[in-house]
Queue: 4 jobs
Job 1
Amino acid sequence: DFAEWVRQHPHDMYEGPLKTKSGQIRTILWSNSALFSSDSDELTAIAIGQDITERKEAERQLQVASQKRYNQVKEIAGGVSHEIFNALFPATSCLSKLSQRLDLNQADEIARNRKLIQVVENAVQRAVEMTELVTEYSKLESDRKIEDVSLQAILQEILLANESRIEELKVKVKLEVPGDFLLKCHRPHIYSLFNNLMVNALDAIAEVKQRNISISACKKGGRLSIEFSDSGVGIPPENIDKIFDAFFSTKPRTGTGLGLAISKKIVELYSGSIEVNSSLDKGTKFIILL
């Protein structure tokens, strides 16, 4: 019976559910103490209950967040190892061929050897870029800062950095962003966000004849709404839900699959949103709210 149980557990703590009058289930931490009489078999049991519902919920959320982060790290690690292997495989293959050809002294072998060396350099460079992007992706949260950043100045800097490719592809760029539009974000983050969109846009329009990029911004409910559009090939409907996933790429030979994942992470880091609308053979539009 209860008295016997108390005798066997004179000082005990346990958690248990308690239903309130309103029907709500709360988690209670019970602390029991038994007081025994020295001259009789009577005992007094004292039970103190502490409502720990919020604490248990916080612990549960912490476990969920921890598991989610672990899954993300595991996904990144698996993706990185796969991508770096793919990037370096041509290098190992070419080095093997070069080692076999070093004994050949024919003049026509020089051009072939130089081509193999170029393949090796490209493969190693891609692997280096992959590790740099993974490092950037993993440090986004710790690098978060708030500062006033001119949206127009950032976009002009990105256009200048990509000027040679823009001229090579004969792209018409339309920039409609007022000079007084400021974002409260870390400047390198905003640069990375829009530079990733620019690189993707240039890749998309390289495959079409009409090559246009349009960037505009307006104020919306105390925030900035930025539209980034291109006239490229568009995104297949079956890929729309995957483009922000880490390591998903429609350009497996040249893309890393991290550019848009980084862009989305940056937007979310500053409590913003990013949407995409795309039509095959018509182009793609990203709408960012920050």
Note: The radius of gyration is 30 Å.
Job 2
Amino acid sequence: MEKLESYLEKDGRITTGQMADICGLTKRALRLYHEKGLLSPVFHDEDTGYRYYSLCQIPRADRIARLQNLGFTLSEIGELLLGMSLNSERELYARKVSEVRAEKARLSVAEQLLREHLEMEGSSEDLVVSGVSLKWKPERTFVVVNLEGCEVQLASEHTEEGALAWYYAMALMREHIQQLGLPAVVCNHISTMISPENLAQRNFSVDRACVAVPQQYLPLEEDTLVIPEGFVVYATALTFFDNSGKSSEVAGIEELLDYISAHKFAIRGSYMGIGDVDEEITGSLGGTFDRLRFEIPVALPN
């Protein structure tokens, strides 16, 4: 930054660059403020094209920048600068608080989903046997929706009917999340669920779906499922269906159940299938995933 005396031009004016420097802004930001009618130069030199500001405009520029940092739009800032009644200003600030809280919730869930994606890659601490991993997981809480009337039967091969049923199930979950007032980003990782009773019979009927939600954003207790800390067995795949159209999920569940049986583990919770759909699952191979994960909570024998 230049020395203070160098900011003063003739008639007490400072250039756009000097104004930007002293206010911690960019020249582009000042041009935008000008275009939106929030802060106009005091003088425009037609010969050079230079625009000049006055030192007395610095507090206004600073206030605009501070309001932007609080999340106000330039349109809202314009209203505040023009002057509002106390009640109107309080309403505007209260609305902004609600928006900030919603964004905070979205970012918190996004962080959790990003961490879960990294965990899906596995680590050297995992015990890997025949493609199945055994890992300790902390307590987790999920929002659950019953798929009444649209239960999805996992098939060993891709069918358009099954794909559309799953899309409908996802739509129900998104609607439920919206009704609960939770951030839409939680729907990025919708998990299919198969009950322990159905797993015991190798009946792969999905009657519920769920999404993980941070504790501070949980809705009413009746909408949630808590899975206590403990071991899970899991496997992963890169695609929902392999190149021959066979279901990777069904094969993965079968592998998990065989592993559980061979090691005499007890199933202590519902199966969950977690993945990110990248392409439409009504295609010939049923869509691709960054990573598809199948897991079943288990209790080890004494």
Note: Residues 36 and 75 are 8 Å apart (CA to CA).
Job 3
Amino acid sequence: MTTRTREPELDAEQEVDLGRYAGAVARRWWLPVAGLVIGAIIGYLISLGGTQIWDASSTVYLGQPYSYPGNTPLQSQQTNPTSVATIARSEEAIDAAAAAAGMKPAQLRGKISTQSVSSPTASVGTTRVQTNPIVRITVQAPTGRKARIAANSLARQVVEKLGTYGAQKVALLKARVAFDQRQIASIRSGGGADAGVRVLILGQYIQDQLSAKFALGQVQQIELPNVLTHAAAVKTTARSRRNDVVVAAFLGFLLGLLAALAWEPIAARRRA
């Protein structure tokens, strides 16, 4: 019987305590509100003093290599977007980019990110191929100039390392065009063969040269990787201004609640 009698008494005491707390907050509602507003202001002021950093992004087109002779799409490190991240974050690339930007390599480590902008599919004849995306390389640095130079340096290094096959193909096609041109000049200057044979051979070299020039244009415009856009720096902050304001406002609100609850007990002690 004693236990059953005690339980209603505890419930009544809890209701009284909750009612007293709610009444204290209601009578001094302005304290939590003031804490919320003051906290938000303080958080905003703190965010203004946050460390300023700079982001700079350059975009790289990876290119799509094709077989030579022939026109079959090839799969290699050039067609794999993760190759960009591997190259850009390598110590060799970081050292070169840091030197170009006047930074220490340690200032770039962990400050480089890559992201594929798109990755659509396309058809070449009856073959379904994954077209190479545009990859964005982003660098964070303490100044805009350093971020811009480092991002552009990394983009150039990526293009240089992924474009070796295309560069060899360009050299081969240019040599072919030059050889055909020498033969065309020699035939036109006259030779031992009769006119009909010279015209036939001349036509073959001209046709071969046109084919080589077309293939050369394809390599330079489609197959070779290139820097699509160079970097431009944008100022940002190391912390989120919104998060600073929200957290400070919440803490101010809690302090205001505590002040409202403690107001009457403290006032009563002073009167006593």
Note: DSSP finds nine helices and seven strands in the chain.
Job 4
Amino acid sequence: MKKILIPTDFSDNAWDALIYAIRLYDDIPCRFFVLNTYEVMATGVNTTIHSSATKKLYEILREDSQKGLEKIEKYLNDHLLNDKHEYEIISKYGSLTSVVKDLINKENIDLIIMGTTGASGIKKVFMGSNAMRLIKNISDCPIIAVPKDYEFEEPELISFATDLNKLFTAEDLNPLYELLLIHDLNLEILHVHDEAKLSDIQKENIELIKHRLDSHNVSYKGIDLISTVSKSINEYTKTNKVDLICFANYEHTFIEKLTHEPIIKKVGFQTQVPLLIIPI
């Protein structure tokens, strides 16, 4: 049974991410862990959990967290019953990153799916904190980030953006391979270049990726650099009905090295389709 963690702050975008997760794995046995975390923020006066004011705030946050999760659980059980799916709600005190890390190890989480915006609705703030913080700090679990107002459609095309200089193992590419099998998808190996000619290593890696994914639905697509890599990718996805963009997230990230821009963050701010981030 696949184990999927869905962090929520009870925003509309978090709900969109939950529905996306359920529908993406509609025919796959899954256990969905719906997580809400809460913290009593430091005020500089008296922040010990034992102070009366802090303790009262802690109890309010804990109660709100539990009630919000129970509301979600009731809706899922009343309206989204699926013999292949199980739901578990988790309310935890602590930072999102630390709680998520603990749950990955404790529950053997296979995938995290979350929204790109928070309750504030300010995409940059959320991508700069919650979503980006997980992307930067979670090194052992893939993440799908779902943009605000995204409505699920049966996916047909994934673009795997890579500079083709990284050697990927079969295990690295497993999240992609799984989606190809589940949805009979087409996958494009998307390369943004300022030179049309590929090196011998890049050509070899194209064939290696195809071999690793063991699928006739994998093809190569090279696109020209338009001022920045993030702009090139976003423009391409807008005009080619891409349903999911995939990045491999390793030290400094391949495209960031190429153009000195924080590629995952910039694409996340602009993209209208979900992002799959594979930690390497």
Note: The chain has ten helices and ten strands.
